[in-house]
Amino acid sequence: MYAIVTKPLSFEEFLAWDDGSGREFELVDGVPVPLSEPNANHEDLIERLCAYLEVHCLEANLPYVSRQSKQVRLKTNPDEKEKSRKADIVIFAKEEWQRMKGNSSSAAGYIPPPGVIEVVSTNWKDDYLTKLAEYEDLGVSEYIIVDYAALGGIRFIGSPKQPTITIYQLENGEYLPGKIFRGDDRIESRLFPNLTLTASQIFGMSR
Questions:
Q1: Judging by DSSP bridges, how do beta strands 84-93 and 64-73 pair with one another?
Q2: What residues pair up with 143 in beta bridges, in sequence order?
Q3: Which of 16, 27, 96, 165 gives the lowest tally of CB atoms within 10 Å of its CB?
Q4: 38-206: what CATH class?
């Protein structure tokens, strides 16, 4: 038997909710909506990049914790039902992660995290348009889009299409035009200023 939602869920209720199917969900207007399963390349890139960033944060003594596949509570008005995104990688403030370790609640983005990384799949418009607006509205300082399969629209990654990383950085509540990285371009990140990775090295994590 699968659990059935009979009333809109709050974010906290959603985190504790389980329909028994083993599927992954996001919260849309108080209703859990199932997500499609990622392919193997997509999943490998997320896992390896998250692990790399976690080690980098420790070695560089950065105040962040990288975790994959975590729910992020989106901004809603008082009269709106709650929403969430299950982000591929969430960059938490170390202080917030330590706070969560001190209680039994699910680990999630209850408050706006410093950074979010999304790896593009076939529904690329979500990453380049919908999620961009959501994370900007939420106040996520840095939003990184990893398009290793060059699935995005030409207006975002150019023509001919090629694997591209786009980094949006918040300035006065708005994202600046995205910085584009391809091939041997070294990634320039506010959150990870001493990162030595190139775009190609990140794309190689999917193989």
A1: antiparallel
A2: 116, 168
A3: 16
A4: alpha beta
